[in-house]
Design brief:
single chain; alpha+beta; 60s Ribosomal Protein L30, Chain: A; 5-stranded mixed beta sheet; 8 helices
Amino acid sequence: MLVARDAAIQLAYHLPMLNRSTVLLFIAVLIGCTPTRDDTESVVVNRVREYHGAAGPWAVAGYRIGERAIKERNLPRQSFSLAVVHYSPAEVQYSCVADGVQAATGASLGKLNLRIVDAPFADLKTIVEDRKTGRTLTFKLQPKFMDSILNVPADKLESTGERVAGLPDNEIFTFEETKSATNAEK
């Protein structure tokens, strides 16, 4: 097992285009190792940082929403079946959730399967639809959670994002499913 670990480390250092944590996690899964919770949190934080530029709490919360959505829908990242609409005020922090969802799901403005709709704070939510089935999930951040990350000082954004990466889903958000065919834009 030590040889496999050493090989994984060498491979990670020779693949500069890929995130080393992601490569190590992938190889660990291939050789039968189970990642620890800290490994998973590290992957979340690194992936958010790659897409968003920083791993602040709002973007990490968005990642966790996207991660849960593709798990619930049993879809791979980058699936064209996903349609995501994020409703939020047009202000940094609230809109950062959309970048996190993008990092987790692969939905994007360019693929026309990610939209941001200007909405009042009271209507903050993210809707993820499986366009093949019409089934949607509506995610809302928990009020207590939002209070804990609202207006975090710049020097505390990364550490707060790391904390969010380790929280259970039910402390970050709620979600409800609509089984009938709907349109994610509604």
